[in-house]
Amino acid sequence: MNPKRCAACRYLRRRCPKDCVFSPYFPPNNPEKFACVHRIYGAGNVSKMLQQLPVQTRAEAVESLCFEATCRIEDPVYGCVGMISLLQTQIQKTKNLLARTQAEITVAQIKHSQNQHSEFM
Amino acid sequence: MNPKRCAACRYLRRRCPKDCVFSPYFPPNNPEKFACVHRIYGAGNVSKMLQQLPVQTRAEAVESLCFEATCRIEDPVYGCVGMISLLQTQIQKTKNLLARTQAEITVAQIKHSQNQHSEFM
Questions:
Q1: pLDDT tens column, A49-96
Q2: Contact (CB<8Å) A90/B91
Q3: Where are chain A's structural domains?
Q4: Which Pfam families match (chains A, B) (predicted)?
Q5: What is the pTM of this model?
Q6: Is the ipTM of this complex over 0.95?
């Protein structure tokens, strides 16, 4: 047993090669992280996706894959698309509130100018 | 060749069984839809995820998986997590604008009441 094997190689019960594609992103002290992406995408697909990316973008790709996988495990029907819908609803509500507030300002300004006009009559 | 084979069974070059788990959601006239989810998740994982869900939720699950897969193909580093970040930024901007507008209203109301107060002095 090599205590320095990454979480992926431990999970897959294999030797962790020096140029392991998983090793920089799946430290042995966080086995859940690999288990999540493996469960949703499969180790082979994750490895393939990482190998197709420039090394400097792989850490961010792993984080976003982990995030999506966690969302899919928590919500097997909608995954993080459910979160996108919620955010879109929230934006729409905030935009509606903004439009109403801006309309209130306009009405207040009209009333104010009407009052000023009547004062001078 | 069975012309009624679903897009998944065509892609996997296999017979489409009567109880095919893919068939209701991957019609033969849309081969791209299956190709996308297969490329990101693999047919086996998609089949496993669908089989773990009640039948009435599977159509929505397929749509969200296709959406996530398409996002991942278009943006291999961030996938649809990139979209979530954009939406969160948009919400923050709209909230800031709303807060500014509400502050403007408060200032205008204070000025208005000060004016009215001075008129009666």
A1: 999 999 999 999 999 999 999 999 999 999 999 999 999 998 899 889
A2: yes
A3: 1-74, 81-120
A4: LOB
A5: 0.82
A6: no
